[in-house]
Design brief:
mainly alpha; 8 helices; 0% strand
Length: 138
């Protein structure tokens, strides 16, 4: 399945939002970088999945708390309460995208350098529990 031009821009915006958010954390919770990261991330999600699916995703009954926390955190960041806003927004991100952590862990395990580390018998159960990966007993 190939991406449309809008979806390609959406991936770029989402990645840019992630980078600005990360730079905002590295610069001791710089309000402008965190806010720009939030805006770019939301625009990217909107471009990737479309307006109707974005609305449906953020208003699902099991995602409403995460959406509320994300928006309240972003609002607090704009009101110069950056650390508290970051904490609340992080809880919202976990609430919204926590279902994808298992997929991300499985993808990272297929990578050359980090894969063996995540698959190590001492580390794998901890990572599986944190990511919510269900392992069959067989």
């Amino acid at each position: 399945m190939w991406l449309t031009e809008a979806q390609k821009f959406g991936v770029a915006f989402t990645f840019g939002g992630f980078l600005f958010f990360l730079f905002g954390i590295f610069t001791f919770f710089d309000r402008a970088l965190l806010a720009l990261g939030n805006i770019l991330f939301l625009i990217g999600v909107f471009l990737i999945i479309g307006s109707q699916k974005t609305y449906i995703f953020f208003t699902r009954p099991n995602k409403r708390r995460g959406s509320l926390f994300f928006l309240v955190g972003a609002f607090l960041i704009l009101l110069k309460w950056t650390f508290l806003g970051f904490i609340i927004e992080s809880l919202g991100i976990i609430g919204l995208f926590g279902d994808f952590f298992g997929v991300i862990v499985q993808f990272l395990r297929s990578m050359p350098i980090i894969g063996p580390i995540l698959s190590h018998p001492a580390i794998a159960p901890i990572v599986d529990k944190l990511a919510g990966v269900r392992v069959l007993p067989v």
